[in-house]
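Q: Convert this sequence to structure tokens.
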Amino acid sequence: MMKIKNYTALLRWFYHNERGAYTVMMAIMSFALLGIVALTVDGSGMLLDKARFSQGIEQAGLALMAENNYSRTNEEHEDVLRQIVTKEGLSYDEKLKEQKKERNLELIRGIVRHYYYPSTYFKDSKDIEDEYVPKCDNLKGPNGEQLKSIACEISGKFERPSWLYLGKNNGLSFAETTTINANKIYVQKNLDEIIPIDLMLVTDLSGSMNSSVDGRYGTAKITILRDVVSSIAKELLEQNNTEEGKIISKYNRIGFTSFAFGAQQQSNSAKCYLPYEIKPSITVRNNYYYDYYTTTIRYSELLSYIGKSQQRYSYATLAQFFDLFVDYDKTIDSIDSFNGKDSDYLMNFNKNSWCLGNATRINSTYIWAKKNESTDLINRFNQVQATGATLSSSGLLIGANLLTNTNPDEEAQPSKLGANTQRIILVLSDGADQLSDANSSLNITSNLINQGMCEKIKSKLDSLQDKTYLEQPTRIGFVAFGYGPSGTQKAAWEKCVGKYYYVANNKEELLESFRKIIGLVEEVGHSIYQPPSYYSN
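A:
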């Protein structure tokens, strides 16, 4: 019995002894684990802060460029004059220069600090140790001349305290503070007149444009469109660098192609054209009293019904047949042969109730209005009446063909300007392609887009670029005016134009969407990825 007690006491002693050993071991391991946590947390935090710091530097550069204290006209604005300069004996100009520097640093510091969230470890933002080095100057032109365009570069760093600092020389955490550097970024603001624009307005002038946006009361959509075209024409053709930050070339040109169920070519104001490669005939299958039979229809038979209220086929069936008559592959291939001249399209007809009305002497297609010719363009555009159905690709194809007419002015050539022309097609429609109602939807445009029409148009127009100079890729934009696009036609246009897809429901939205597609917004600056060539260098 005594031995059992002795063994029991011994086991108890051993148990208590082992528990202490585990405690020591766990304490040592916990310190190591804490170090791993410290390295992990601070390491990931540093990477995250560096990314945020760099992003903040880039955004600050754009803000610095947008405010443009280096060369703006109104240099004595409130944000500059309120800066406190402590240097003694400065002249007014010297003091203003120092105030600009202080304002630039204030602008940069304020934006960057919002990106890397220093409040997470600084109780007072005044304790932040960050430093920024901005530099701005005019750019140097190809012949060594001083340009009005400017560029800025910014670098920066800040001292980041560790979240979990475990002391010196233990190798288990980062230093108490670590310097986070941002790579130098470069931003540029173009202020020189270098890029001419050729703008083709492809506008829907179907009958629904005579209605208001809500379909009840209010200003007609055609009236709003005319006001917007007038504003754009004056801004592109009459205004030449009169507003700071605007890039307006005296070699800008504007043309328009109005469409309904077809569009006019340049030389024949009496006719509408359906600019597609057409199959001579098609065979369709009909169901008549449960008896299936086939019928052959020639294109001339279909053409004879266009514009007539009495016809052999219903509107819906006619829409279906017309889709079948188009040879989509050949139509897209024909874009390669665009040369700016009228084409002999198989399907053409006198303007009528389906296409732009009976005003056969009014040109619904026109090129080109140039510098100081905005009044002529506006008058011509205002004469075209809104009448007919809707087939947007007819206007797009004819407008794209006309856009291959390059500017003949010797002074407008890339070799003279040192820049290519920016070609833009702006398509506006106030409804889906159809003949008369929702049951007569036409899929020609969406079929052409999905088979590569827009890419082919861009490729053809881009081939006109002079490869010696920076190329200006062709831009196609689409504005849905006063309706909510949906279905396959919406998806097709989004595929065609990418980011240049807009919906507008009033004059302000329509004008803004036009200006965004054309690029008539103030140049606030853009990032560049290599050091700029400064004039002072």
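Residues 241-245 have pLDDT under 50 and may be disordered.
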